[in-house]
Amino acid sequence: MIQLENVQKAFGNNRVLRGMTLEIKSGTSMVIIGGSGTGKSVALKCILGLIQPDSGKILVDGKDASTGDRDAFLAKFGMLFQGGALFDSLPVWQNVAFRLLRGSLKRPQAEAREIAIEKLRRVGLKAEVADLFPAELSGGMQKRVGLARAIAADPEIIFFDEPTTGLDPIMAGVINELIREIVVEMGATAMTITHDMTSVRAIADNIAMLHDGVIQWTGPVSKMDDSGDPYLDQFINGRAEGPIEAVR
Ligand SMILES: Nc1ncnc2c1ncn2[C@@H]1O[C@H](COP(=O)(O)OP(=O)(O)OP(=O)(O)O)[C@@H](O)[C@H]1O
Ligand SMILES: [Mg+2]
Fold it and tell me: Helix (H, G, I), strand (E, B), or coil: what is residue 104?
């Protein structure tokens, strides 16, 4: 579903992606790990076509992401942003139904609201929450609303950027489980960026570690613990000593 081939991207002298190659098969869940500033978000933006790579190739569902109808292209994606990124001035249901109220996915208002309430239920929130504003919700509830928004338009591909950051371990577990369930029942292709190793084990079919601008290791999550890769070992065990320099 998603293919990156030798993707390079530099900002001035800062060579961030130095030949990133990665394949995410349809209906599978890929988790990208890697140190802060290694280019995980840049890679995600390249796939979405928000950043143009300097060279290399990106295909989504076999099509070149940088050409064609942007609106139709973006309609394939759902996205859970880091920190939720809800619109403060809109009630919860309008946040969830945001894409169903405008653009090519536009539905009548009553229908959009109904879908929003159904998606809120799916993430464990009651219909009453629909008319509250984001500021009236806890962090965990905001994450759920963000998740409901990500799935509102039944996307083929869902991106999760740090889905559990800032949540207590139990709420993080709940969100991880929800993500796993939703991806499985929708048959969606998922790409998650996270630092949370519990998330990795809960969400991933496959993992890929980005380091020095390339995918240092990729494979099924079951092989992660005995990969024999010193970079991956250091990262997943959170060791200060190893080939990855802690100070950057
Ligand atoms: N628009 C931009 N212009 C210039 N430099 C950028 C831009 N976007 C990202 N960078 C640089 O690219 C590098 C990778 O950034 P990126 O946000 O992808 O890191 P990350 O792996 O997502 O880190 P984190 O885990 O902290 O979110 C950083 O050095 C950053 O400064
Ligand atoms: Mg990032």
Answer: helix
